[in-house]
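quick one before i forget lol
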Amino acid sequence: MISLVGSLPTLPGTEPEVKKKKGRPTKAEKMKERRARVSEGIKALADDDPTKADVQAYFDARIKHLLEEV
């Protein structure tokens, strides 16, 4: 059988990204993950056509969570 996997051309920028296994995540990686989680929460809130009460409840919960982190 002929294997074509290694001979196929790829477009620039479409090559699969190979992540190397690292140890503990860096501070920058942790911050990036945290921002992504917060952004997902905001997006979910905005997608549901929130009322003022929904927005108030979201911000109350967010402030409570931030105070627990400190």
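fyi The CA atoms of residues 51 and 57 lie 10 Å apart.
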